[in-house]
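can u do me a favor
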C-alpha cells in the first residue's frame, strides 16, 4: 500500500524536479543549445526505466522492435520535426512579433511559475483543438490514424505518427509571448514529462489534484482504446486534460487494449504512407465532416 502510494507520486515528483531544474539552472545552462534536449531525453530514459521496474500491463511490455521504432521517432521528432517547427512556425512568428510590436509585458513581469503555466496551458489549448479536429475531420484523421495504430503504450509512443500529423501537432503561438527563456523551456519539458507518463506502461495513478489538470495514463489509454473509433473521441489533452473538462470531452475510465483496425500494427513505411492510401474509413466509421 505504501509502496504503491509512492509509485503514484512518480509523475508529479518528476514534473516538480524538471520545473525546479529550470527555475534554478545557471543562465549558461539555460542558454546552451543542448540543455533542453538533454533534459527531455533524460526524462524519457527515466520513465522508460520505470516501465521495467513498475510495469502496468504485461501486454504493453517493450520489445526490441517497439524500442527501435520508438527511438527512431524520438530522434526524428527532436531533429526533423523540431527543425521544421522552428523554421516554418516559431521563427516567422518571432519575426512577426517583432515587426508588429506584439508584447505581453504583464506576462514578462509575472513570477516564474505563472509564466510556465500560461505557456503550457496556452500551447495545450491549441493542441487540444488540433487533436480534436483530427478526430472529427476525415482528412486530418488520415494523418492522425497511424498514432492510433500503436498496439501498446510506452514512454516514447507520443512521438509516433505520420510526419504531417507530427508537424501539425507542434504548431503553437508561444513565440508571440514575452517569457523568460527558462520559463519557456520549463513549460516545454514539463509538458513532455506529463505526456511521457501519459503514454507509459508505468503502474502510477497520480493524486486527484494532478489528474484534474494533467493527463494520466488512465485518461490517455481510454483515448487509445481498441473498442471502436467512436470510443477514441474523448480525452484529447496531450498534457493538459483540463481543457477536456472545460469543453465536455472528458471521459473517466481506462483501457488495457489499444489500437485500431483489429489492432493491426503499422510499419514506419505504412505510417508515413497512410494518408495517401485510398481513404477507407477506419472501423467502417468515417469521422463527421
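np, heres the sequence
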Amino acid at each position: 500500500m505504501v509502496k504503491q502510494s509512492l509509485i503514484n507520486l512518480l509523475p508529479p515528483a518528476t514534473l516538480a524536479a524538471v520545473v525546479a531544474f529550470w527555475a534554478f539552472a545557471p543562465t549558461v545552462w539555460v542558454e546552451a543549445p543542448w540543455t533542453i534536449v538533454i533534459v527531455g531525453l533524460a526524462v524519457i530514459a527515466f520513465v522508460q526505466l520505470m516501465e521495467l521496474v513498475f510495469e502496468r500491463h504485461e501486454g504493453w511490455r517493450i520489445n526490441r522492435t517497439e524500442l527501435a521504432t520508438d527511438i527512431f521517432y524520438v530522434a526524428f521528432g527532436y531533429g526533423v520535426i523540431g527543425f521544421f517547427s522552428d523554421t516554418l512556425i516559431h521563427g516567422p512568428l518571432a519575426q512577426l512579433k517583432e515587426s508588429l510590436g506584439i508584447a505581453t509585458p504583464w506576462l514578462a513581469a509575472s513570477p516564474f511559475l505563472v509564466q510556465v503555466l500560461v505557456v503550457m496551458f496556452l500551447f495545450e489549448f491549441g493542441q487540444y483543438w488540433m487533436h480534436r479536429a483530427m478526430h472529427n475531420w476525415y482528412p486530418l484523421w488520415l494523418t492522425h490514424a497511424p498514432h492510433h495504430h500503436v498496439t501498446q503504450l510506452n514512454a516514447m509512443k507520443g512521438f509516433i505518427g505520420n510526419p504531417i500529423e507530427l508537424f501539425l501537432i507542434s504548431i503553437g503561438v508561444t513565440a508571440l509571448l514575452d517569457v523568460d527563456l527558462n520559463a519557456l523551456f520549463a513549460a516545454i519539458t514539463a509538458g513532455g514529462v506529463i505526456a511521457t507518463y501519459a503514454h507509459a506502461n508505468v503502474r502510477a495513478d497520480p493524486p486527484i489534484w494532478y489528474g484534474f489538470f494533467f493527463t494520466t495514463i488512465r485518461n490517455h489509454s481510454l483515448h487509445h482504446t481498441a473498442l471502436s473509433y467512436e470510443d477514441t473521441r474523448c480525452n484529447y489533452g496531450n498534457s493538459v486534460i483540463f481543457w477536456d473538462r472545460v469543453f465536455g470531452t472528458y471521459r473517466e475510465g481506462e483501457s488495457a487494449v489499444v489500437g485500431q483496425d483489429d489492432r493491426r500494427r503499422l510499419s514506419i513505411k505504412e505510417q508515413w504512407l497512410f494518408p495517401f492510401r485510398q481513404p477507407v474509413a477506419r472501423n467502417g466509421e468515417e469521422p463527421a465532416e
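The chain has 14 helices and no strands. hope that helps!!
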